[in-house]
Each structure stands twice: as C-alpha cells, then as structure tokens.
C-alpha cells in the first residue's frame, strides 16, 4: 500500500463510479407523449437521429420497467393525477425530462385547463426547450440526464435534501 493511504472510501467511491457508468449507459425511457413533441420524439428514435446510440433504445410502455420519464406535450390539469401516478409507479432511481414548452411551462396555452409546467406535480431533472424541440435538443436532454445519472452518488436518494424535495411534492 502507498504510504499515507488508509484504504477508507476507495471501494465505495469506485463502486459509485461503476454503478453510475452502468446506469448512464442503460437508461430505459418511458415516453408520455400527448401532442406534437411526441412526433419529434418519434423522429429522435428513427434511424437518422437514433437514440439507441446512447443506450436508450429499449422503450418501455409500463412504468415499472423504466427509469426515465419523458413528458412531451401539453398536460391538462385532469391528466396531472395520471402523470403523477405513472411517476410513482416507476422504480427508484427515476429521472424526468420535460420536453417542449408545454411540458415545461404550459407553452402558449395559458388557460385554466392546462397545467403550467409538470414541475407542479412531479420533480423534473432536465428541461428541453422548444415548441416543438428538434430531435437534436431531445438528444441533448437525454445526454444531460446521462451526465446527471453518471455523477449521482448511490447515497443521494437517501439524503435529507432529497427527502425534503420529495416531501415538498407530497411523495413519501
């Protein structure tokens, strides 16, 4: 052993990095598409842009098998409880991308019936701007989530800060 090396923390730190590398390269997205941003997502999955290059080729259409919720399009206030239920059915760790202006802020629909941003009902990790965003922007959003996933400590989800965030959304 090198002089001055105590060996403490080496295994846990390396283990965090290995798990982070595995997670970031095997994200399983769950598309929750309600309008035109969903069409752009379809283009992102097609051969020209090919989201599969980033380890996200396995789309899941059941929340229990996915770890990345991609909300694309306008979310009506009546749809908000459904979106929240889908989020809660996903296993931890889970991440969320708000794709497009409507999912991020209600977009041009400043009306009583449209949710003015999904961050009112679930926590959002990455916002992808645009109306609708181009496939390149969606790819950038996925890469930003990959960076977040790769750097996230295994202990983050058990921290007081994370628990406070979940409590602010009413999630235990």
Describe this structure in words.
By secondary structure, this protein is α/β, with parallel strands linked by helices. The chain has a single domain, classed as Rossmann fold. Helix content is 39%, strand content 10%. It contains 6 helices and 4 strands; from the N terminus they run αβαβαβαβαα. It has a 4-stranded parallel β-sheet with strand order 1-2-3-4. It is globular and about 50 Å long. It is a peripheral membrane protein. This is NADH-quinone oxidoreductase subunit B. It is found in: Cell membrane. Its cofactor is [4Fe-4S] cluster. Its EC number is 7.1.1.-.
Summed over residues and divided by their number, the pLDDT gives a mean of 87
List unreliable stretches of 5+ residues: none
Q: Cα-atom Rg, whole angstroms? A: 18 Å
What name does CATH use for the topology? Rossmann fold
Helix-residue proportion: 25-40%
Shape: globular
Pfam families: Oxidored_q6
Subcellular location: Cell membrane
Catalytic activity: a quinone + NADH + 5 H(+)(in) = a quinol + NAD(+) + 4 H(+)(out)
Enzyme class: translocase
């Amino acid at each position: 052993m090198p002089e001055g090396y105590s060996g403490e923390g080496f295994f846990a730190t390396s283990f965090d990095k290995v798990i982070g590398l595995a997670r970031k390269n095997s994200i399983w997205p769950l598309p929750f598409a309600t309008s035109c941003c969903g069409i752009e997502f379809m283009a992102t999955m097609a051969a020209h842009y090919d989201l599969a290059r980033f380890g996200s080729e396995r789309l899941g259409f059941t929340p229990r098998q996915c770890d990345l919720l991609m909300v694309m399009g306008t979310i009506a206030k009546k749809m908000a409880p459904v979106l929240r239920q889908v989020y809660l059915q996903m296993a931890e760790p889970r991440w969320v991308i708000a794709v497009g202006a409507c999912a991020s802020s209600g977009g041009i629909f400043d009306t009583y019936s449209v949710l003015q941003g999904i961050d009112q009902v679930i926590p959002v990790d990455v916002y992808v701007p645009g109306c609708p965003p181009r496939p390149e922007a969606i790819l950038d959003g996925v890469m930003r989530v990959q960076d977040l996933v790769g750097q996230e400590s295994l202990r983050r989800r058990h921290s007081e800060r994370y628990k406070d965030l979940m409590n602010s959304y009413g999630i235990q």
